[in-house]
Amino acid sequence: MWDHQSLFRVSAQLFADGIFNLLDRNLKPEVFLLGLASARETDEPQAVVVEPATLRYSPTDFAGVKSLAAALEPDGPRDVVYHLHRDDHDRYEKLRWYGLLQQATQQTLTQICQVRAEERVSFCSLPISLYGYLVVVVLQLSRETYEAYYTLPPLSTGSRPTSLVNATVQEFLQDCSRALRESDTDDDRPVLDRDYNEVLRAAGRSFMLRAAAGTHGLYDACNGVAALRHEGDEGIGTMLVARRHHPAIVPVLTLDSPIPLRDHRRVRKLLELSEDRTALVSDATDVFGLGYLVAPDDQAYEPIFTVHFTRHYSWELTHDNQLMMKVVSNTPRLPQGRVDAANFAKAAQRVFPYLDEPTTEYLWELTQSATTQPTGTILVISEGAAQEAARLTRQSFRVAPRLMTPSVLRLVTNIDGAVLIEPNGTCYAIGAILDGLATAKGDSSRGSRYNSALRYVESSQYPCLVVVVSEDGLIDLLPPGVK
């Protein structure tokens, strides 16, 4: 198609890895390019090009995309917008055809994945005309992981994102399309150099448009409110987001003059009034007062969006009691729920196959105790806990071996450092500063606690399972992939 198509594809793959690994490493993004020759029949050589050529898909798999796009054309008369300028009308028709090609490509990939039993979900960009080809950027993600997150039902009109992952997909494809369009201004070498977290912030803003019914500014307003303190206290409270006079919201107190949501200080002060079920009520533009959502068994009940201000610089978005997005320091992340018993048992059995059920349950009790530590902590379960405690003598507090209990664990995790225990629950050290060699699996978006634990796990000569509780609320089981 063009000289630097391989370079662009590799750049797009690295770009996708950087973005989606911040959300969930199990999404496993894969990027490839599909080129449809603008002026060639589908049976001509190079009429369809797939980059990379070694991909499991071949050009013949997409030979019917154009005919499928034509078949998607609705029968009968259609609404046509006529523009005064001929070029404008041609542009409208061209974009319409590009949209049909996008749908046809996505349908083709969906059918291929179903026939070949590939657990992948595919997303396609609008085609970009480049050097005689219509170039489509294709992004594929793990279907199991993508569908594991709660999503909103799609709207009948428009393309508002249904989840944070979906919003990130849209933002990624838009960036790729933008880079292709601008390729002729940069030595024909498209550049994807946008900061990964900035892409996620843009995706968060886009997703919040769904909660705000298209009203801009809700995402930044929530960040502004979460950043403020009131008389030294962190902002903790809830805000219901719905249209005014929503039948599912019972008003408790109505302000005579609504407070603009952009007035962060006044909204932050009003947040002190929210308590239990009672929350601020806003339509994403103004705060009208206080109210509460009716019970689910009420005829007027309807799932609505709720913003939970959890701590300084932190807030969460829920819908129908489903956590959809966590925002910490203006950067959105997918919800990382508490480690559940089933996942922990599976991880423990994988690392320590000899554990019996009572011991696994006991370790689970200790893990639950560790996850309640508000300032974060690390619990290291290692077959070599005694040897590691001796090795780390100068950077830990060694203790006389004793069976760790949940109540004692809550006490010893009040200080920095890791707690070292054996799989049978015997503790050998507290406040341990973990070491280890640098690893390519490190994540610069995570704090030192997570990365030091990851380095330790990757370098440890003993089988170990590590529970990392970060101060921002994220909980991880290491090594990666044990969940």
Q: What count of helical segments does DSSP give? A: 13
Low-confidence stretches: none
Portion in strands: 15-25%
Structural class of the secondary elements?
alpha+beta
Give the oligomer, counting copies of the same chain as homo and different chains as hetero.
Answer: single chain
Instruction: Tell me, rounded to a whole number, the average pLDDT.
Output: 87
- Describe the sheet with the most strands: 8 strands, mixed
Strand order across the biggest sheet?
7-9-8-6-10-11-12-13
Can you lay out the helices and strands and say which pair or pack?
Layout: H1 5-23, E1 30-37, E2 48-51, H2 65-71, H3 86-115, E3 120-124, E4 128-130, E5 133-142, H4 143-148, H5 164-181, H6 196-211, H7 218-226, E6 237-241, E7 249-260, H8 264-270, E8 279-282, E9 286-293, E10 305-311, E11 314-319, E12 322-328, E13 331-333, H9 341-351, H10 357-371, E14 377-382, H11 385-391, E15 397-403, H12 406-412, E16 418-421, E17 426-432, H13 448-459, E18 464-469, E19 475-478
Parallel strand pairs: 6-8, 14-16
Antiparallel strand pairs: 1-2, 1-5, 3-5, 4-5, 6-10, 7-9, 8-9, 10-11, 11-12, 12-13, 14-18, 15-17, 16-17, 18-19
